[in-house]
Amino acid sequence: MPLANDIIKSIRKVVGKQKHHLHEPLFFGNEIKYLKKTISTNLVSSVGPFVKKFEDQITKFTKSKYTISTVNGTEALHLSLVACGVKNNDEVLVPTITFVGTANAIVYSGAIPHFVDSEIETLGIDPLKLEKYLEKITIKKGKFYFNKKTKRKIRAIIPVHVFGNICKIDKILKIAKKYNLLVIEDAAEALGSFFKNKHAGTFGLVGCFSFNGNKIMTTGGGGAIITNNKLLAKKIKHLSTTAKINHRWEYIHDVVGYNFRMPNLNAALGSAQIENLNKFLRSKRKLFLRYCKEFLKVNNVILIKNPEFSKSNNWLNAIFIKNSSIKKRNKVLSLAQKNQIFLRPVWKPLHTLKYLNNMPRMNLDAAIKIYKSCINLPSSASYFDIRK
Ligand SMILES: Cc1ncc(COP(=O)(O)O)c(C=O)c1O
Description:
seven-stranded mixed beta sheet, four-stranded antiparallel beta sheet, 37% helix, binds pyridoxal-5'-phosphate
């Protein structure tokens, strides 16, 4: 197994001999102080000062206008789809290479995931292939485009910034404009990633983040929606808090709302974490550069790099094995596991999951290739001493 051995040797050279998980959180700031504050003030649930503080910190960091925090990234996407006006039976374009939550959010909203292909360069949606495809399969009626085969309206697109790498968002925006598609950015993995100095999530009508324990910073579980649209922000906040009308004592709800607000306890953790986000980013950049140097020496393996037009947060480093197969890839994963290095493959393309198998889709050859060939490397921010 020369290839697997070479890969493991290279990983060890960069991160050392101990046991390695893919991504671990790091707490060395005000986490305990802020958490204690929530408990000592009895404000542990969705009312409390840390929710607003954390939202303001996200707004400031991303330079968006509004932030609404949520219970997780999946519900941030779900709520965004509903608030943006995606309706029952609309089709939503989504890459097959993404976390399952992206497609589930579409299903929760009553819409239909329509799977599109990705490209190896960015691991995001392939804009060239998408444009040719839409030209072929759509018909315009009024101001909307419909799927000729299913007769359903194609209403939205969810570009995903996979592992923190920015997809070709400029080209995707152009396609979205041409086909009158709402753009809901899945920036769950991309806090701290930029495209031409503009933060991920600020390109679409809304952008969604996840603060799950495995992300670049965490709130335990949590998410957020950012937008520059004041009315939409108001609507999202209202829907996320059970659509409750302000009143001194009555419980009045004007539409079906959701109980999706982030609790103060989680926001307190997030508030402390985001104070150290730039340190996490610096550490991850350093790790990425070390991997770059090391994997240059490994034949038939390429480290995935974000193209020059953008800056990744380097959340999860990934390698691409040339001429790979599932068998070849699994040999690497298996040998790594025996060596206490817990590598992971890319997600199984969503259209291959049984319950999503009958959803509309284009040719997805590149996605299958990515699935067979890509492996994530240990990528925690804790490999360097960043406490200072
Ligand atoms: C690309 C992507 N989309 C959506 C999500 C959903 O976020 P969460 O796990 O917070 O629900 C995640 C994170 O797990 C993700 O990686």
